[in-house]
Design goal:
The structure is a single chain. This protein folds into two domains: 140 residues, 2-Layer Sandwich (Nucleotidyltransferase, domain 5), CATH 3.30.420; 181 residues, Nucleotidyltransferase, domain 5 (2-Layer Sandwich). It is 41% helix and 17% strand. The strands form two sheets. The chain has a six-stranded mixed β-sheet. A five-stranded mixed β-sheet has the order 9-8-7-10-11, with helices on both faces. α2 crosses α4 and α11 packs across α12. It is globular.
């Protein structure tokens, strides 16, 4: 946090709150898009209530800023079919969001807890929501439809896609770079955005529009993740149900005990720790990395097929931005795609949320300066 930013008033700014499955991020963004302040706290239901984390941290952190923010903006993972744009919160919206918790329990529940806490702490502060599913509202019919009985599909069982806020940020960033550079393709820009963190998903983007993605009805589908299984054979779940597992046991296993954690036999869900253990010869860590890699390469191939070729593959998220071994492996493994630029783009969901919500509320935010977390 630089001295110039710390002297800026908060009035007219957006306070952005991003409750993830393993972290709680907050940022303050000026009306012109500048990042004034940003911090992150680790959070997990087992470590205490969301309200306790917020109450012991946020009021003190914001005490140095003059003035009241113009609005507070939240990242909401699942917007269902109802929400495809930044939306001001009111009792009717909150009621729908409560109903959507079941579709993304690791994310929507904490986001609602933050909204309720903020309404108690700053009752006069307008609150807005931005949705991870919104960017994928452009998915064509064939990309969002499951091959299910018509009666089931009429219940709203379809692919929504997630991580849309960061995929949109990656798309905006790459598009600006290509427009201003000498490498612009002769046809539409074909981009694969790879969000690789605790949650992982790919998005095939053509001319700034999502045309295919790996996550589906919930954030469980697709790539292998930290503790989530990714795509598996539905018949496997039927067998477990017939053996007596309850839906609650299935959910707990698929959401919190699978992925890298399950593959490494409980060693770790953190790719950094798995890399170290694999180098020391740990069989479970080696298996976890190998299955993760296989899933990722398979997904990139599918996204490339949907785009009819690729110009840029962008890595984002904690693993995508920092795992040098993965970057080297992808460079060596994806030569068959032809001339493809492989780049890293720092995730910035909060900056995008601030720009979208300030714009929707009548502000005119400019392109943001980069601002790294202070904690």
């Amino acid at each position: 946090m630089d001295a110039l930013a710390s002297a800026a008033p908060a009035g007219g700014a957006a306070l952005v709150l991003n409750a993830g499955s393993s972290s709680l991020k907050a940022g303050l963004f000026a009306a012109d898009g500048r990042c004034l302040w940003r911090e992150q706290r680790r959070w997990h239901p087992s470590s205490g209530a969301m309200e306790e984390v917020l109450g012991s941290w946020l009021p003190a952190a914001l005490a140095a800023w003059d003035g009241e923010p113009l609005l507070a903006a939240h990242r909401v993972v699942h917007g269902g079919e109802h929400f495809t744009a930044p939306t001001p919160l009111n009792p009717a919206v909150l009621e729908v969001l409560e109903d959507l918790i079941q579709l993304a329990p690791l994310h929507n529940g904490p986001a609602l807890a933050v909204m309720r806490w903020l309404a108690q702490w700053r009752p006069q502060l307008p609150q807005w929501a931005c949705f991870d599913t919104a960017f994928h509202s452009t998915l064509p019919l064939e990309a969002r439809t499951y091959a299910l009985p018509a009666a089931w599909r009429q219940l709203g069982l379809r692919r929504f896609g997630f991580h849309g806020l960061n995929h949109e940020h990656v798309s905006d960033t790459i598009s600006r770079q290509w427009r201003s550079g000498a490498k612009a393709p002769s046809g539409p820009l074909r981009l694969i955005s790879c969000h690789l963190g605790a949650g992982c998903s790919l998005c095939a983007i053509r001319e700034g529009r999502s045309v295919a993605t790996t996550m589906g009805y919930t954030p469980l589908e697709g790539l292998v993740m930290a503790t989530r299984s990714g795509s598996i054979d539905p018949g496997l779940l039927l067998r477990l149900l017939r053996q007596g597992l309850t839906p609650e046991q299935l959910e707990r296993g698929l959401q919190g005990e699978s992925g890298l954690l399950g593959l490494s036999a409980g060693l770790s869900s953190d790719m950094r720790q798995l890399r170290q253990a694999a180098a020391a010869g740990h069989d479970g860590a080696q298996l976890a990395i190998a299955v993760f890699r296989h899933s990722l390469l398979e997904g990139i191939g599918a996204m490339a097929a949907n785009l009819g070729g690729v110009d840029v593959i962008a890595l984002s998220g904690g693993i995508g931005e920092h795992d040098d071994e993965l970057l080297a492996d992808l460079k060596a493994s994806l030569g068959w795609l032809g001339r493809v630029e492989l780049v890293r783009v720092p995730a910035d969901e909060e900056g995008l949320i601030a720009r979208r919500c300030l714009s929707a509320a009548g502000g005119r935010p400019a392109e943001p300066d980069r601002c790294s977390p202070t904690a």
